[in-house]
Specification:
mainly alpha; 0% strand; globular; 444 residues
């Protein structure tokens, strides 16, 4: 009965239109995307209250995966059940998949044109500045004491000097967090969460005291069914890929690799990029280090979650390996991008459909656990490693013995100042940097 009331007040068709629109305008990374949803859903439409919105956000913050996409899935599920959540999550991603696939095709087909090279010349140092700024932004919230700062430093050494794979760093940081939470709980207490706001926007359809709709109540039968269906979808697609291309086939390996990537994306896209780099560049040879930077640059300029850079990796990898032959490179690229996207986001839907009812049943102040505090600290060190990697390839594209790209360094410095000092938006910084790079290439 309650679910029916919510459906009547929030028409499913109207919600679909909103989620579809959001998929095309969700620029600015997770912070910008969450802000857009808050402004529209909490302040303007009053579909959900401030407290319920932040409660859902706190849950997605402790999950691996893109929190903005998971938040959209959660709210869609809370409003209209399973199909509402699936629709919200898919529409948040699909526009980005197709836009990024088109841009990747243009990049691979015409990337050697002087104008395209000039634009990328300006964007790449800006992306490096964005990664450095992300490390600062996360570190300023997460590293509240010297123990956590030491963990960040050790994580940087582990991945930069010792080349330890990212999942092992996450595991060790989590274990240290568990132990630290027992021995020194004050050092590993929750931080950086989203506290409830005292702002009032008036009554909401799903208000603070609105009872839990029937579809959001926890039942073991539903839990088992969602788990079985989710795992079956992943297993069935992976089995089909194995039958058609073998376990060592490019698409099959992508399905397995991006499944693992989806489970270690604590800290957002910037944190998982080193892992994607290790696999895509060093292990499988799907793309080069320079192409990885270009992919992040394209990902920053398209709507949707930044983790959609996996679609670029999948597209380039399938294109490079010519999985369907040299005459069908665009189709191969689209297949690679689709496989990467499916297996990256499938776990996110499961996390919401499986955990959402338990979160609703225990609604209250959710805090970060000690293991997550440790993982978040390590993530800062990993992101710094990513910044160093990008800076090296941008400033010395042909190796340390070659010419230093001083103009690229100036673009990067200007981009960081714009982000840090003047709080200019990411899209504006990227657009300005692209213009500077294009102008510089035309002058030379």
């Amino acid at each position: 009965m309650i679910n029916k009331t919510i459906d009547n007040k929030i028409p499913f068709g109207e919600a679909l239109i909103y989620w579809f629109k959001l998929g095309f305008i969700s620029f600015g990374g997770p912070a910008g995307q969450i802000s857009m949803m808050h402004q529209e859903l909490v302040e303007k439409r009053r579909w959900i209250s401030e407290h319920r919105f932040l409660h859902a956000l706190n849950y997605t913050m402790v999950l691996p995966g893109p929190e903005a996409q998971q938040l959209a899935t959660y709210i869609g599920w809370l409003m209209h059940g399973v199909w509402g959540g699936i629709a919200a999550g898919i529409l948040f991603v699909i526009p980005s998949l197709f836009i990024l696939s088109i841009l990747t095709y243009i990049y691979l087909s015409f990337g050697d044109l002087p104008s395209i090279e000039g634009v990328l010349y300006g964007i790449k140092p800006a992306v490096t500045a964005i990664v450095v700024f992300a490390a600062y932004r996360i570190g300023s919230r997460a590293l509240g004491n010297n123990i956590l700062r030491t963990m960040a430093l050790l994580a940087f050494i582990a991945i930069f000097v010792l080349a330890i794979p990212f999942p092992y760093i996450v595991l060790m940081a989590g274990l240290i967090g568990i132990a630290g939470g027992m021995v020194m709980p004050d050092k590993f207490s929750a931080g950086g969460g989203h506290a409830a706001s005292d702002k009032a926007y008036g009554p909401a359809v799903i208000d603070d005291d609105t009872p839990i709709p029937d579809h959001a109540k926890f039942r073991w039968s539903r839990f088992a069914m969602f788990l079985l269906v989710g795992l079956s979808i992943g297993a069935a697609v992976m089995a089909l890929l194995t039958i058609n291309y073998g376990w060592d086939g490019v698409l099959t390996q992508m399905s397995w690799f991006f499944t693992k990537a989806a489970l270690v994306t604590f800290g957002g896209a910037y944190a998982v990029l080193p892992y994607v780099y290790q696999g895509g560049v060093e292990q499988y040879g799907w793309l080069t280090g320079t192409q990885m930077i270009d992919g992040l640059a394209l990902g920053e300029t398209t709507p949707g979650p930044l983790i959609m850079v996996v679609a670029f990796v999948g597209f380039v990898g399938a294109w490079t390996k010519e999985i369907f032959g040299p005459e069908m490179l665009p189709l191969a690229g689209l297949a690679g991008a689709s496989v990467a996207t499916l297996f990256t986001f499938l776990p996110s839907f499961l996390f919401i459909l499986l955990g959402g009812p338990m979160v609703e049943a225990t609604r209250g102040d959710m805090k970060f656990t000690a293991p997550l505090t440790g993982i978040t600290a390590a993530v800062v060190g990993v992101i710094l490693n990513l910044a160093v990697f990008f800076a090296y390839h941008v400033l010395w594209p042909e190796g340390m013995d070659a010419t230093f790209e001083w103009f690229a360094a100036l673009i990067g410095l200007g981009a960081f100042i714009a982000l840090f000092r003047y709080k200019i938006g990411i899209i504006t910084v990227i657009a300005a940097s692209a213009g500077v790079g294009l102008t510089y290439s035309l002058i030379l």
